[in-house]
Design a protein that fits this description.
Radius of gyration: 19 Å
Number of strands: 11
Strand order of the largest sheet: 4-5-6-10-9-8-7
Length: 174
């Protein structure tokens, strides 16, 4: 009986340490929404379906939902083989404009139906901003990082496939 109790305590300690390690790395994690993420394989790619959008990514990417930030933006991370790409979807996302304190260069391009803006900083990092368009209820941004630059081709391919869901599933009735 004592041996079983020691194993139970050891397992609980492991999960507590794992939780805090994960929480520190991701700056928060919403386990319920992360587990609800769906992955659909399509050839050499996968469709990652979150509560807010669908995006095509390489098969090895993993989605982690962090929750809602101070401004109620949906925040998350894509883990790639080359690092993590953070995103923000909401009213107050960063547009990476040149007059921003960190951005010294901005470019734009059209990817299928989306016009995107690409900001670059002095650390050779890029951020991608998609202003509100089509079915989007808010703006969407991938934050400045070297992982964004190293995964630029895959990320822009994914942006071409983006589909957004209703942020708030509220039906107004009279």
């Amino acid at each position: 009986m004592k041996r079983i109790l020691k194993w139970i305590i050891l397992i609980i300690a492991f999960f507590i340490i794992a939780h805090f390690t994960i929480d520190i790395y991701f700056q928060g994690i919403n386990y319920k929404e992360t587990i609800k993420t769906k992955y659909h394989t399509e050839g050499n790619y996968q469709i990652i379906e979150t509560s807010h959008f669908k995006i095509m990514t390489p098969k090895n990417w993993i989605h982690v939902f962090q929750g809602y930030g101070e401004e109620a933006n949906a925040c998350g991370v894509f883990l790639t083989g080359k690092g993590k790409i953070e995103y923000d979807y909401g009213f107050f996302t960063d547009s990476f404009e040149v007059d921003s304190i960190f951005v010294f260069n901005q470019d734009s391009m059209t990817l299928n139906r989306f016009m995107i803006f690409i900001g670059e900083n002095e650390n050779n990092e890029i951020g991608i901003h998609i202003p509100r368009q089509h079915e989007m209820e808010f703006s969407f941004s991938f934050f400045m990082s070297k992982a964004c630059k190293e995964n630029f081709k895959e990320l822009t391919t994914g942006i071409k496939s983006l589909e957004f869901k209703k942020f708030y599933n509220i039906e107004w009735t009279e």
